[in-house]
Amino acid sequence: MYKRGVVQVWSLEQPDWHCKIDEGSAGLVASCWSPDGRHILNTTEFHLRITVWSLCTKSVSYIKYPKACQQGIAFTKDGRYMAVAERRDCKDFVSIFVCSDWQLLRHFDTETQDLFGIEWAPNGCVLAAWDTCLEYKILLYSLDGRLLSTYRAYEWSLGIKSIAWSPSSQFLAIGSYDEKVRILNHVTWKKITEFEHPATVASSKTIVYKEVEKSPSVETERLSFPPTRALASSLFSTQSKYDVSQVPVSLQHIKPVADRANPKMGIGMLAFSPDNCFLATKNDNIPNAVWIWDIQKLKLFVVLEQLCAVQSFQWDPRQPRLAVCTGSSKVYLWSPAGCVSVQVPMEGDFQIVSLAWHCSGDSVALLSKDNFCVCYLEREEVK
Amino acid sequence: MGDWKTITVPVLSSDSKNIFHYTSEKKISPPSMNSQVLRLPLPSSKSMHSFFSAFCTEENIEQSISYLNRELTTLGFPSIYAESKGQELNLISIINCMNELLVLQHKNLRAQEEVEMQHLKLGSDMDHLQNCYAKLKEQLELSKREIVGLQERDRQLQSKNRNLHQLLKNEKDEVQKLQNIISSRATQYNHDMKRKEREYNKLKERLHQLVMNKKDKKIAMEVLNYVGRADGKRGAWRTDKTEARNEEEMYKVLLSDYEQRQKQLLVENAELKKVLQQMKKEIILLLPPQKQKPKERSEDGPVLSDLEEDIGELNKENMWELSCETVREQLTNSIRKQWRMLKNHVEKLDNQVSRVHSGALNEKDVISREDHELETEKLELEIQQCKEMIKTQQQLLQQQLMSPCDDDTTLLLQDCYLLEERERLQEEWRLFREQKKNFEKERRSFTEAAIRLGLERKAFEEDRGAWLKQQFLSMSTDYKHSENVTTPSAFLGSKYLVQIMLFHHLKIT
């Protein structure tokens, strides 16, 4: 509850257990769990400080001068270390803390103009820090604070929009405002390839799935007056399915307004599949399409063209299965075997805004503005 | 000379016009008679008389003869007068002169013809040349005009080029200016941002102070119970030791990551080395062993010895682990050498094949392409035939195995089977009948034997009966006589009796 500055915690196993944290006049802007689940990190208003509340010892620690940026706190995958972006005297710094006792391990400055975000590699040994979109610069630091490498693709134009590490830490994908994704390798930290996102897909080896609306079939015999709720919802909600389009396909391309900040262009979303084989990207200039790249061949594999703008997508944490939502009441699943569009069987409208997979890969939570529902996926029986 | 009167010569034909013209001229200038004589065309016979009569008449014979004589002597002919200074004419000299004159006349005519021909030729040549000249002049005019046009165009293009260059320069200058503007604005913005940030920081500090002051009074967190730590241990104080431990942990993590990566790289390296070794061995095998010219031998000498050395050395297992510079270089260098040799060899083979193809040389080592192709064609045909045979056989086999769909064939087949069965059955019947006959025979023999046996039995029974009777009678009488005499016979008799009883018993059973 950000407005009141209060954080409430409940336990899933013990329904009686309850905790309430009140920041008081400091205000609350963001709150997150620590990876061991025993501490809560609250960022106060105006990013004055980060308070670390411990649920086991009721002790408090403070982190001063945190940076007000998009991704200021990053935890390593094994939860051992936490990196915090700070800014003092108009210079950016990164502090690395040990999560077990919240001791400061390393503190070093970064050569960025205005640090935008930090992210750990999944192996926990390399930290990527990138600059604001006015400068294309990404810096790679080792766990002990040494600068391993810097990468700059070009000057002056708008720079990095999003980055993603591959699960094996072998590749770092950087999506930028020039509608390209550049992939760096972990041995030399140099670019190995560039992926372009043109408005026309011409290569004959890519498959383009296009979502088309299916007109609902209504059996006239079963019509009754007044119409039942189920019937009404099925009448008004349009079914859709996927068709394979023939290349060359031209996708809907929008040109953003030039005189506004944070234009809707460039690669806004990047995600690697858990088996390291695929990379899913979204070009904000072509908001209805999801591009899936084959990392083993470094080529475009599949393009999914939806009817509405793609809101978010996430990979199944166990297998190469991608779930996409576009703000309609359908969730779309893609895997190398094919893709399917699933209607959420709800009365009324259920606009799916975001989704989250369960870590076992068996279910996915679909969130709309006020509600959420859980979708279970049947597993194939192994005989 | 005498005065020549104008004699009107009748107009005979067109070619006498000249003569008419000539006679009137003759009147005017006698000294110019020479040239006029030459221009005279051969007169026709008709005008001859008039011509001759014009020159010499009866009145002026002497004059004309002297005149002629004068002319002839000036021309170099002997005089026509006799040697004495009289008026007698030397006929022979006259005839000679005439002949000479005729010959001269002919010559002159011929020369005239020739000259006229040449004149005509020259005239036509001149015409031709004049035409050519006119045409060339025209062409020259045209090309001059073209040149002028092209020059004009060239000038225009050059000026356009200059304009474009100028524009490009202007654009570049503008770009440079804009870049400068951008960079200067960027620095200005940075500076402003920094200033604003400092102000902001100051505000934050102030706010922080205020908030901190207020904070100490309120209880910030309420927990029902404390939750245990995730790893079950109790919290520890923060000391230098813990700091050192943390550092250690961090370095351990980094080192383990590097070690893992190094291991992976080593494994990859070893695999690649193995592949290279294999490739090298295969390349060595592919290369022809004896095919070396003396020139190459000097080059290959060290290579071969290197080869042997390499093979000898790298057969040792230890080389796998060594990754020092020299071993690495050795392996790659030797592979490069072998690859180069293989490439040369392949190129040589290509050249040979191309030479054979063009038909220049006939190498014995190399099979000509045509032969090779013929062979392959033959083999292909054979393969086709074999495949077809296999297919047909398969089809037949399938037909046999599957349930037949054709009625006639099934009936035929069935008939075949029935015949077979019938024959078998006939055989069996035959056997059966034979056996039956045998059995009949045996039965008959058995019955006969049984009948005989019956008869014999009857006879035997009768005998027995008689004997028994006799015995009884004898026994009763003997008993009376003596008791001990016929004990053996009685015994025998009793034995015989027992036997009979047994036989009866057996018969009954």
Notes on the protein architecture:
The complex is a heterodimer of chains A (383) and B (509). With 383 residues, chain A is an all-beta fold. Helix content of chain A is 2%, strand content 47%. Chain A contains one helix and 33 strands. A six-stranded mixed β-sheet of chain A has the order 21-20-26-25-24-23, with no helix packed on it. A four-stranded antiparallel β-sheet of chain A has the order 3-4-5-6, with no helix packed on it. A four-stranded antiparallel β-sheet of chain A has the order 7-8-9-10, with no helix packed on it. The radius of gyration of chain A is 23 Å and the shape is globular. Chain B is mostly helical and 509 residues long. Helices cover 80% and strands 1% of the residues of chain B. Chain B is built from twelve helices and one strand. Chain B has helices spanning 17-28, 33-38, 45-55, 61-75, 91-215, 240-286, 294-314, 318-321, 325-358, 369-401, 407-481, 487-508; one strand spanning 221-223. Classes of the chains: A mainly beta (383), B mainly alpha (509). Strand 2 (18-22) of chain A pairs antiparallel with strand 1 of chain B, so a sheet runs across the interface.
Topology, element by element:
The complex is a heterodimer of chains A (383) and B (509).
Chain A: E1 6-10, E2 18-22, E3 30-33, E4 39-43, E5 49-54, E6 60-64, E7 73-75, E8 81-88, E9 91-98, E10 103-109, E11 115-120, E12 126-131, E13 138-142, E14 147-151, E15 160-165, E16 171-176, E17 180-185, E18 191-196, E19 200-201, E20 207-214, H1 229-236, E21 239-245, E22 249-250, E23 267-272, E24 278-283, E25 289-294, E26 299-305, E27 312-315, E28 322-325, E29 330-335, E30 338-343, E31 354-357, E32 363-367, E33 372-376
Parallel strand pairs in A: 20-26
Antiparallel strand pairs in A: 1-2, 3-4, 4-5, 5-6, 7-8, 8-9, 9-10, 11-12, 12-13, 13-14, 15-16, 16-17, 17-18, 19-22, 20-21, 23-24, 24-25, 25-26, 27-28, 28-29, 29-30, 31-32, 32-33
Chain B: H1 17-28, H2 33-38, H3 45-55, H4 61-75, H5 91-215, E1 221-223, H6 240-286, H7 294-314, H8 318-321, H9 325-358, H10 369-401, H11 407-481, H12 487-508
Helix pairs in contact in B: 6-9, 7-9, 11-12
